[in-house]
């Protein structure tokens, strides 16, 4: 506690010393400010203003006088004298006589004759021979009312050719189709058909038309030459025929 009091006292003493020093430094400055002589403010100077000069009044411009202009006197125009008209001498123009220009005779232009174009003759197409060949081998006259086309289908060696379709038709009748039997024989009935000219051929059964479930022959594709046969009403005598016989030979 003692030390603290000593320190407080030391601090207060230092503060008094510093205050005393400050007061001693301010005193000479204050005395110097009081002893200084105040400066005198200079009086303002007056600037002389120049007096305005008098402006001269312009003198009036004299009006120009009217100067008389002399008009020239018109001179007399001389009267024109009569100039004699020159006499025109007629000029004789010689017209040349037309010359006889020969007229050129038009020569007819000969038109070139066009040569005939030689068209090559088309070669005949070699139509392959049908696989079957038919021929009439006979016929018989019958007076019992039976009419038909019959015959045999054979191989080239003469053996029987079964299962071959043969058709008969006419221009007015769609015809019928049958198949050769195991011995090669076939029979195509003409019952109910008026006598006349008929066509017989080996046909492709799959290309034939149908009538009531039965094949017809008119529109079939043929596999042989077409043979024409004739049936008659008369059943006896010369030329009588009710059953023509046609054989077909195949491969």
Provide a quick synopsis of the model:
The chain is an alpha+beta fold and 251 residues long. The chain is built from one helix and ten strands. The strands form three sheets. Strands 1-10-2-5 form a four-stranded mixed beta sheet, with no helix packed on it.
- Major sheet, described briefly? 4 strands, mixed
Number of strands: 10
Overall geometry comes to rod-shaped
Question: Given this structure, which CATH class of the domain at 144-249 is correct?
Answer: Mainly Beta
The chain-level structural class is: alpha+beta
Helix percentage range: 10-25%
The name of the CATH superfamily of the domain at 144-249 reads Immunoglobulins
Under CATH, the topology of the domain at 144-249 is which? Immunoglobulin-like
Average predicted local confidence, pLDDT: 77
Radius of gyration: 81 Å
Topology as H/E string?
Answer: HEEEEEEEEEE
Q: What is the level-2 CATH architecture name of the domain at 144-249?
A: Sandwich
- Low-pLDDT runs of 5+ residues are 34-39, 46-53
- Percentage beta strand: 15-25%
